Structure formats: structure tokens, C-alpha cells
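[job 4471] stage=fold_predict status=RUNNING
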Amino acid sequence: MHLRMLPSGIEFHSQLDDAGLMATRIISASSLLRRLGSWRQATVGPAYQALAVGLRLLILDGRLPLAVRLPGERSLAKALGISRTTVSAAFAQLENDGFVQKHERSGALTALPSASSRGGALLTHDRESGVIDFATATMPAGPQVHAAYAKALAALPAYFPGHGYEPLGCREFREAVAERYRREGLATSCNHVMATHGAQNGLALLLRTFVRPLDRVLIDHPTYPNAIDAILAAGCRPLPVPLTPSGWDDEAIMAAMRGEAPRLAYIIADHHNPTGLVMQATTRQRLTTQATGSDTIIVYDETMRDLWLGNEPGFPKPQDAHHIVRLGSMSKSFWGGLRIGWIRAHPDLIKKLVEARASLDLGVPILEQLAAAELLLDDGGALDARRTLLRGRCDYLLGIVRDALPSWRAHRPEGGLSLWAELPRPIATGLGDKCGELGLHLAAGPRFGIGGAFERFIRLPFTLPGKEMARAVSILANVYRPDHSTGRPNYRNRSRDVADFY
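[job 4471] inference complete, writing C-alpha cells
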């Protein structure tokens, strides 16, 4: 058995487990102590119960990954300054509750009572069902979308003499995407760009081309649910790296990159979904450096990049390297029905992607590409209007959540389309089920993670009109707090009336 300590306090070793797979990671006592923080003051009661609660919250929030071997009872007791009996009692309670599994050869591994649960699909009903869709974070089309389609329809006859198959995409669209990157300081030509049926289709094509079954794929944790589905559908093993409340843990990412050598890393660095965070320039640089010379392809999903809520952010200049791939999409910025996206990568990678896509599809509809090109080459008016609307709706939703659910914690994100709300208790899935019975469709936290993590979180989009958001929060408050003695929350005390965000 070979052991190696990495900067994050996680060890990797080569012993095989009972299933014949590589044994799981091991967290050191000092690293676990740092993550536990003030665990003793957070809970009233015996020390073993407080320790069990602290460890359980780390697992539920995704800050302590699953299938990680916990420190031995003796070493953890010494690090925490408590007796071994206390640690043993805490482990026993966690095992009884399903948060720890003990194996003769692997020791005590972190787990969840229902490790396969990730919640239901986000899109489960149609627009006419009467359900309030508080799960899908997307906006209706603005008037610019109709105008772009009208121009595209007028330009379409120029393509009629040809066969209509464009494996790379039509030149107008690829040039519009290339110009977008050139404006940001990244030298890009049409040869760097390939049209896709959205960012998710682009990720699926990347997995199909460059990743093999059982390969590791590093992901943010939490992350975009459909990306997790695509990774699992490709037969790959997600490697979740937990986000902290303030952003990415550099040492944890670097440790995972060095220790498990993922074939691909899927990162939402700009207005992360679901948290709204933005990755620091130093973290991006370290990722690039770490991946240089390795087989890891870094995939940045830039779907939310244009949706900042404050002043225009000073994004770091995009880095260019052979192993960096960028995914884009029109769906979040303009309209979900515009199923057009792109891959920006080195021409060598683009060539391999074109060869691989022949067995998947023959290209993207030309009309949609021409419409997308019109929107991308716009002077920014459509996006400015979108961002203004989203700012108002975000502030409004944040206000009514704080009024109606004061024990919940939600912060204004830097960008994106939703709040990542933290609940006092791990009841997100049950809360979502109850609200579903009342016509409110929610996206519970486990949908955004692996193995049932994030039961204390719910994603709340601010993409609906104000009146619908008010109805949704009212249902949430009534289900979460059945005692109505405090009366209904007064939404109209907010700085703007709901009608302003219709």
C-alpha cells in the first residue's frame, strides 16, 4: 500500500478495495479539524452528539466528499482534544444513521442514508399545466429574438443551393462567436469554433470524443445537474470538489488534479450555477498550470458569463492553451428555445470533435445559427435590458424570502439566474415533494450534487414575474412553517411593487 499526502490533507493510496476498485481518499485529522470549525459550540448536548452533528453537516453540505476514509479514532481524538470514547460514540451514531459505513479493510467511510438519490428531473411538466415552475432557471424570449429570426429568415435562401449540412456550423455564426472572444482579448478565428445544440450537447460531444468509461471527470460540487447526468450517462466517474461559501478551494482542486488525474475537468467559473460565484484569476491560472503537460482537458462552461447583476465585472483575460475548451450557449442569455451553443477550442481538438459528431448528428439548423449570429453581433442592448430586469427580480425575490423565511440564508449572487438558499435543516427533498403537491415545482439541493448531498439547500430562480415569485414563496413559507399565527408576510413592503417585474 502506497500513501501520499497532498496539500489539502487528503491522502491517496493504491490498495484495492473489496470491489476491485482503487481505494477511496483519506482525510487527515488536521484537515478534518479545520473543516469542523467551532463544532463544540454549535450544538447543545454531549460532546459525541455535537461531533456527530458537525460531521453530518459536512457530509450533507458536500464539504466532506462521500467515500472518504475518516481518521482513526485515536488520531482524531488527539487532534480534537477529546477522549477516544467520545469519537467512537460519534462514529457509532453516524453509522447508525447511515452517514458512515465501516469496512474491515477500508475503515470508516463517509456515506449517505440514500446515496443514489439526486431528486427528480427539472423539466417534468408543460407550460399549460398550471404548475409554478420554480425549478427551471430560464427567461422568456425578448423582442430582439423575434427580430433576429426575421433577419435570419431573410438570409436563409442563400443556403438553399447547398446540401444544408454544416458539421462545423455556418460561417456567420462561427465568426460572431469568434468576434465575441476577440473582444475579450482571446485571439480566435472560425477554425476555433464549432456550433452545437447548446452547451449540454457540447459537453456530451466532448465526453464522447475524449473520455472513456470509468475515467474520472472533476466537477464543482454543487454543479449544473444536467452536466452530472451527461457524465454518468457516459459511464464516467464524477470527482466532486466542494465549493466553500466564498468560492473554490484551490488546494482541494489541485490535490484532486494531482492525486486522481481526471481526464476532464468541468468548471462553471463565471456566475456559477447554482451559487452565482465567480472563480478568481489565480485559481484559473493554477488550473491551467496543473493541467499543462497532463492529459486533463479543462472545460469552462460560460453559459452564465453575460448575466452579471452589478456593474460589469472585470473578468480575467481568457487563457489560451491546447487543453482549455470553452462552452457557450444562447439559452440563458436570450431564450431557452434557441437551442444553439458552441465549443471554442484549439483547431486540433475541433477537428477531432467534427469527426466524432458524425455518428451523433449532422450539424445544427442553419436558421437558428443565423438568428444567434444576429443576437451575438447586437450592440448589447438585448443583454442590457435582460440584466436590468434580472437585477430587479433578484432584489425582489431576496426581499420576500427574507420576510417570509427569516431562518433561511440567501445572499445576492454576483450573477446568474437564481439564489442558492440554505435551510436550517436537511429537508430540501421532502419540502420539494410537499410543495409539488400544491402546484409548486422546486429544484432541491441534491439535484445539484452527488450521492444526495445538499439536503440543506434549494435553488430559487428569479426568472419569473414578481406575482408568480410571490405566490411561490407564499407556498414555500406555508409548507415550511405550518403555524400561521404570525400572519402572512407583507410582500408589498419591498422597495418596488411586484407589478414592476411583470
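[job 4471] summary: The CA atoms of residues 247 and 277 lie 6 Å apart.
[job 4471] exit 0
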